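Page 47, continued from p. 46.
Same chain as before, 258 aa.
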Amino acid sequence: MPNPLGVVTGASSGIGLELARQFAAHDIEVVLVAEDAAVHTAAEGLPRAHAVQLDLTRPESVDELVRRVAEIGKPTALAINAGTAIGGAFVHDTSMADQLAGVDLNVRSAVQLAKALLPGMVDRGHGRVLFTSSVVSVTPGPYQAVYNASKAFLKTFAGAIRTELKDTGVTVTTLFPGPTDTNFFAQADMLTTRLATTVPKDDPAKVAAQAFEAMMAGRAKVIGGSPLNRLAYLSALLVPDRVMSGLHTWMSKPRPTA
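Result:
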């Protein structure tokens, strides 16, 4: 097995930062990637850590990341975790630029990075890959329509690659977190929603520990956080989409502020 090197995107805060901490705690050299300068501070607190500040919505930035990783070593683990959401009604309350940036980060950059780094893992006969999807990947998402759709894409994309890579030594794990105590809701402009204000949030450190364990064990998926997330995920598979859409609307529709 090569000397372990992990790559984590979206690693300046939240689940991504906690994943990077998991790598470091298990004596794995780690590359932390994020678009904001906080990624440098995050890396300073970890041994054998490298900060790479890049905006992965830009294809050329993903290419640059691949070059930077190659300068450090050959990755044995990859956590494709970076993602963003845009809250609000799709037609009138959000901009095209923001929605397409969400597609670029959540979908296109994930495909581009996987396409660039997985062949080397397969050729070396060893690798662990994690995609961060969401429990909402099985639910239509009014008022965060592109986000839910992007997480559904990651769910099926990761599952397909996992099957293709059977018996290669490279495994693919999908993480399905529920609502987590991160800056997600502030970034998505969803602070007035019931989802942000009334639903209990999971500890990102707990979710990351569950994800890391599952990834290193080569498991197909892990539903992170509270057992309620597993119930929500399984219920969504059984309940008609029209019902789930109505529930999602109640949870995610912005409410007037006092």
